[in-house]
Design a protein that fits this description.
By secondary structure, this protein is an alpha+beta fold. The protein has 2 domains: 2-95, Alpha-Beta Plaits, CATH 3.30.70.1060; 110-295, Hypothetical protein, domain 2 (Endonuclease III, domain 1, Orthogonal Bundle). Helix content is 51%, strand content 11%. It has 15 helices and 6 strands. The chain has helices spanning 15-31, 56-65, 67-72, 83-95, 121-127, 136-149, 154-159, 161-167, 173-176, 181-188, 197-217, 220-224, 244-255, 263-272, 284-295, and strands at residues 2-8, 35-40, 47-51, 73-80, 102-104, 110-112. The protein has a 4-stranded antiparallel beta sheet, with helices on both faces. A two-stranded antiparallel ribbon has the order 5-6. The chain starts with a strand and ends in a 5-residue tail after the last helix. Mean pLDDT is 84; it is low at 40-46 and 91-100.
């Protein structure tokens, strides 16, 4: 997560045109799912634009390549920021109704705003995100893909998901656990996936750790679902990027030797796999996920 601090060069004569250009540039960031909020955050942090679902390089290009920014910005600083410093402000803005949380879908019904950021997000939002999962292969796949997303956008990973499935043997962790240096070399040459040696090796390591979890706990699902948060203790939907449960699960996974499973990554995993229903209350899918969760039989 990053905060963008911009110093503009507009004068009073240009104020009207400047403000409209500034508004349009920010709106594009929101529509594309990159900008999270604009304004003052925590004490001593000041104002800025908070960005997520992006890498530093992508964010730098967004700032430097945009014609409006190039014409009007004097200085631009991009700082990495701890998600916890943003969470409280997000909760405040959401509670005050200052953030639009939904957009109308193709059927005119409201959906979580983020699903409008890219065409491929709608089906993922409507049919996958938040619906409870107890299949070990799917749970392992999602943990791996969230790890690959670190520093990148989910759109990048989603567009490459079928390539990932082919490259990693449909995320069968029994097979992946037997990968060798030859497989790592093969994967590093596969331009259909993210060719990051550390993340590739983490998947192989995590597959070996997943086998251990199954042997010790019965299934990966039984282990993961022990960390399902109590609904009464949950934060408002989409207002936090970590939770006590994601921190605890992350800590335990790391203790067991897993890699690329930080609290933010694990929280995103929990959102997607239905351990929490993080669709906003007005989203048409929220009720569908709640019905699915009520009939879902927790493993273990």
């Amino acid at each position: 997560m990053f905060v963008v601090l911009l110093k503009f060069s507009a004068n009073k004569a240009q104020a009207g045109q400047f403000m409209q250009g500034h508004k349009d540039w920010i709106q594009r960031g929101f529509d594309e799912g990159v900008f999270l909020l604009v304004g003052n955050l925590q004490p001593n942090l000041g104002g800025g634009i908070v960005a997520h679902n992006t890498s530093l390089a992508e964010l730098q290009r967004r700032v430097s390549d945009d014609p409006f920014v190039a014409e009007n910005v004097v200085t631009a600083d991009i700082l990495e920021i701890a998600p916890a410093r943003v969470d409280a402000r997000l909760q405040f803005l959401s509670a005050e109704g200052r953030m639009s949380q939904t957009i109308p879908g193709p059927d005119g019904k409201p959906r979580c705003r983020w699903c409008a950021a890219a065409p491929e997000f709608l089906a993922y939002h409507d049919t996958e995100w938040g619906f409870p999962v107890d299949d070990d292969r799917r749970l392992f796949e999602k943990l791996c893909l969230e790890g690959f997303q670190s520093g990148l956008s989910w759109r990048t990973i989603l567009n490459k998901r079928e390539n990932f499935r082919t490259a990693f043997r449909d995320f069968d962790f029994e097979r992946i656990a037997r990968f060798t240096a030859r497989d790592v070399a093969r994967l590093l040459k596969d331009d259909g996936i993210v060719r990051h040696r550390g993340k590739i090796e983490a998947v192989i390591n995590n597959a070996q750790r997943a086998r251990e979890v199954v042997k010790q706990e019965g299934s990966l699902a039984a282990f993961v679902w022990r960390y399902e948060p109590e609904p009464a203790k949950r934060a408002r939907p989409q207002t936090v990027s970590t939770s006590a449960e994601s921190i605890a699960l992350s800590k335990e996974l790391k203790r067991r030797g897993w890699a690329f499973v930080g609290p933010t990554t694990v929280h995103a995993f929990m959102q997607a796999m239905g351990l929490i229903n993080d669709h906003v209350a007005d989203c048409v899918i929220h009720a569908k996920v709640e019905r699915a969760r009520k009939t879902f039989r927790r493993p273990g």
